[in-house]
Amino acid sequence: MTQPDSTSSTVAPNEEAQFLPTDRLQLLIDALIADDRVVIGPTIEQQAIVYEEISSVDDLPRGWTDVQSPGNYRLEKRDDDTYFGYVVGPHSWKQFLFPPLTVVATADRESADTKWSMQAPQEDPLRYAFLGVRACELAAIAVQDRVFLQGPYVDPVYRARRDAAFIVAVNCTQAASTCFCTSMNTGPKCKSGFDLALTEIDGGFLIECGSEAGAVILKSLETDDAGSRHHDLAENAQQQAVEQISKTLDTGGIRDLLLGNLEHPQWEEVANRCLSCTNCTMVCPTCFCSTVTDVADLSGDHVDRKRQWDSCFNIDFSYMNGGVVRNNVKSRYRQWLTHKLASWHDQFGESGCVGCGRCLTWCPPGIDLTEEVAAIRLHDLRVPPEGSSS
Q1: Mind listing the pLDDT tens digit for each residue in 242-263?
Q2: What is the pTM assigned to this prediction?
Q3: In whole angstroms, how far apart are CA 289 and each of 147, 210, 276, 283, 336?
Q4: CB within 8 A of 41, min separation 6: which ones?
Q5: Strand 128-133 with 323-324, pairing
Q6: How many CA atoms lie less than 13 Å away from 25 in the CB half-sphere?
């Protein structure tokens, strides 16, 4: 497993990069399957590019791209046959590492005197191979690593799945109008946190190695030495994505800006548009809110304690001591945005946003968090210190 954090590094491209012709891409999938892995990759389902189990290059969305804007997503045919000529869809890799529904404990009645025994399920996690992980998604996995692995309490379900995962990243060669990874310093180039990284260029793929496990798979493929032409093509393709990114988020002093404007009228304005539908939190690759429910069988002698995804936009999420703390949309949207962009820094030392743009695309009314922050910054209501210039 390669940990995508600030301390990890990749093998120098000029030392390890190889070229894999397009007609040999199937060899990579075959090698991962031969390594007893379940390959999860992009495929088309219900007119969207999602992540599902694949076994062939024919499962990939070859020749398709996704056109995105706030509140809008659609697929279009490309004028070429690239395999990875899209951005990101509604799915994130979070669902395979932090599953939407999982049993975290079981309890069984041992005797009539109500004596119970509890056990923690010992999951034998699938050995996933993720194919097509983008730079912003590597950053999102790093955020969840911080949440589930690097705090005082380690999540055993996440750890087991994460330890068994193999990551094949893909450098972006195009961007959507909703992308702002450059503002968050998370992309579009994959710099660390992968086992292998591909850049799709004319005639094939430049492959960079990022781990010992990646080197083993790479050696099993029929690759050619990558020359300067391959590196130049890859660099130009990656730069194309950089130049296409038009959306920005000014992160300068953003924590104090948001936490210092908790009564800003912009919160009420956005609440008038927000449906509190939870879409933004469900598609977000870093959100980790969950709830726990005890579910008994019909006999009443066995209980499963189930953890499932939840959202701070659900009114019952803030229920405590007989009442709801955040009982209106304004307070729930404010909680989400200030946590994601401000207090997340206090908890984990980094932002909870990676600039993937999913929350913009899959928001029915098309609410754009970058515009909400800009509106608050434009009319900053904080009182400047006495004697300072405003």
Answers
A1: 999 999 999 999 999 999 999 9
A2: 0.91
A3: 11, 31, 15, 12, 11
A4: 29, 51, 52, 54, 59, 60, 130, 131, 132
A5: unpaired
A6: 25
Q: CA nearest 192: which of 372, 13, 384? A: 13
pLDDT at 259: 97
pLDDT score of 113: 74
Domain coordinates of the chain in residue numbers?
13-102+115-244, 254-287+311-378
pLDDT of residue 3: 54
pLDDT at 125: 84
Nearest by Cα to 87 from 98, 99, 95, 76: 76
Residue 253 to residue 271: CA distance in whole angstroms: 24
d(CA 294, CA 321): 19
In whole angstroms, give the CA distance from residue 277 to residue 283. 12
SS3 state at 133: strand
**DSSP secondary structure string for all residues of 169-181:** EE--S---TT--H
Quick check: 45 pLDDT over 90?
yes
Q: How far apart are the C-alpha atoms of 313 and 335, rounded to whole Å?
A: 9
Q: How far apart are CA 204 and CA 22, in angstroms?
A: 4
Alpha-helical runs (H) found in the chain: 13-16, 25-34, 94-97, 135-149, 156-163, 181-184, 212-219, 228-244, 254-259, 265-271, 279-283, 329-338, 344-348, 358-361, 369-378
**What are the backbone angles phi and psi of residue 44, rounded to the nearest 5°?**
-95, 130
Separation CA 130–CA 51 (nearest Å): 9
Is-contact 221 204, C-beta < 8 A?
no
**Of 230, 240, 335, whose CA–CA distance to 289 is shortest?**
335
User: What do you get for the CA distance between the two ends of the chain, in Å?
Assistant: 50
Q: What is the largest CA-CA distance in the chain?
A: 76
Cβ 93 vs Cβ 133: under 8 Å: yes
Residue with tokens 């019952």: 316
Tokens representing residue 350 in the block: 């980094």
Can you tell me the mean pLDDT for 320-339?
A: 92
**Whether the bond into 21 is cis, omega within 30 of 0:** no
Q: pLDDT (tens digit, 9 = 90+) per residue, 113-148?
A: 778 888 988 878 899 999 999 999 999 999 999 999
